[in-house]
Known about the structure:
Layout: H1 2-11, E1 16-19, H2 21-27, E2 34-39, H3 44-54, E3 58-62, E4 67-73, E5 76-82, H4 88-92, E6 103-105, E7 111-112, H5 117-123, H6 131-136, H7 139-151, H8 157-166, H9 175-187, H10 191-200, H11 203-207, H12 213-226, H13 232-239, E8 241-243, E9 246-247, H14 248-258, H15 265-271, H16 276-287, H17 290-294, H18 298-308, H19 312-321, H20 327-344, H21 351-358, H22 364-378, H23 385-398
Parallel strand pairs: 2-5
Antiparallel strand pairs: 1-2, 1-6, 3-4, 4-5, 6-7, 8-9
Helix pairs in contact: 7-8, 7-9, 7-10, 10-12, 12-14, 14-16, 14-19, 15-16, 19-20, 22-23
Amino acid sequence: xxxxxxLQSLLSDRPVALVxxxxxxxxxxxxxxxxxxxxxxxxxxVADAIAQALKAPRVLLDAEFGVWxxxxxxxxxxxxxxxxxxxxxxxLTRRDLTINAIAWRLSDGRxxxxxxxxxxxxxxILRAVSALxxxxxxxxxxxxxxxxxxxxxxxxxxxxxxAERYAPQLAGMAAERILVELDKLIRGAQAPQALEDAIAVxxxxxxxxxLDATRAAAAFARLHAWRASxxxxxxxxxxxxxxGDRPAFTALALGxxxxxxxxxxxxxxxRLKLSSRExxxxxxxxxxxxxxxxGAGTRALxxxxxxxxxxxxxxxxxAWAYGAATPEWRDEALMRHWHWExxxxxxxxxxxxxxxxxxxxxxxxxxxxxAAIEEARALGELGTPDEALARAASMxxxxx
Length: 400
């Protein structure tokens, strides 16, 4: 990694070390995206030196804890953080998992591993540094299952017991922090198993006491298994970012989890502090009557599709994941959505054309006629502008 060489040449005479996830990923042979550098003393001069050497921007993220971020290159950042504790080893022993408590000193290239993280990397096991660390920040309960989801490694039994002990305290954690961990859990390769384990220790019950966790987990497992076989348009729609790098798939998964809350879903959505667009996706999945949707005729389905717009694929998938619809219905609903979406992008008539042809004044009636025309077109009842004008004229004559 050229970045390591550059940092070592620049900072080898200072008491700094790469720590945490970047060291873990590096030792696992993976390419880190986010790098963390711990500095003994004031991190500002180190952040300035890195930013100047790399000709990269830097910004202060947290003045209290001394956290600076340098945008190294597209998609890659380096956080420069003040060391917590009198020594590097003391800093490391405050962390969540042993595999995240390994550091690499730039001065001599030696590893610091006070918690035994190297052995746990070799064993491929998730072990917490201490119960006290989880008690001091109960969000680490979710982090344990987030790493189970991303790495697919088993959780050491004592660590699992600590997670169960402190899971109830998740109820008091900040929603923004919870959302970050849930997003990463949802996107992991082993997410269904991690969710089941989080349910087993009470982590999900702490967040949503009324959730039908068994049903939600089964629906999510179906969704996760199907995701890779989705058609390209649906897959692209689910991978689009709704808020930063959080994809629509996360919103779909959250909606599936919260669907069993019924009328309580709205309160749960509000507590998560989602962006407005994310909240709309989650709300659509969590509150839409999936059984009714699966039993709707083509005309009713078109109207739901029109109302939901970009969220319709997520709702159709949720209807299948929850067992309200068959795989054939799901695929048909998705195919119809993409067909209807294409029609909406190329309408038969514009409002101006309709008003000119039928001598209409601007107003709600024009929109109603256009909507009726597009619905008839979507259902195969007409297909040309002349047919559309004739339908509109007939509706006007009948007073519809």
